[in-house]
Design goal:
Blueprint: H1 2-14, H2 25-28, H3 30-65, H4 81-120, E1 131-137, E2 143-149
Antiparallel strand pairs: 1-2
Helix pairs in contact: 3-4
Length: 151
């Protein structure tokens, strides 16, 4: 997944803007790619957090049935190696969730910045419109409709 994202990012950054677009594909399509990445990373953060909660619920269930298993050792960890392993697994899932969340929020900020950048750019009419409808209010108060052709 990381390689695919890297290849797509490199492709978008290396390609130049098309003549009629005015914006590079990195901005035009990158904002949508970042938004999709933000949604995906936040979803993965939720899943990792849920896994950490599930593992910690197992620890709490074990501790409620037998409190002796939850005694702490001299180093501050659980004396029971199985419970300590479960606790470390829970911490590992929480760290992953945090990393996915930071990545997702960073992608969301990047996507918002690209949306704002595109909206803030000055808009000019493209030169390649061959037919353009025209509407005027005549001095007599009537409305005139027409078609302008560029040669």
């Amino acid at each position: 997944m990381k390689r695919l994202l890297l290849v797509v990012t490199a492709f978008l950054l290396l390609s130049g803007p098309a003549q009629a677009q005015g914006l590079s594909p990195a901005v035009k399509y990158g904002k949508w790619a970042l938004l999709a990445g933000a949604i995906g990373m936040n979803y993965l953060a939720v899943r990792a957090h849920d896994r950490a909660d599930e593992v910690f619920d197992i620890i709490e269930a074990e501790c409620s049935t037998d409190q002796q298993r939850c005694a702490l050792g001299p180093g501050g960890g659980y004396a029971d190696p199985a419970l300590e392993d479960l606790y470390q697994t829970s911490l590992r899932h929480d760290r992953r969730a945090r990393l996915w969340l930071v990545g997702g929020e960073t992608a969301l900020v990047g996507s918002a910045a690209l949306f704002i950048w595109e909206l803030a750019r000055p808009k000019t009419r493209p030169d390649n419109i061959p037919f353009e409808p025209e509407m005027r209010v005549m001095p007599s108060g009537r409305t005139g409709l027409g078609l302008r052709m560029a040669f």
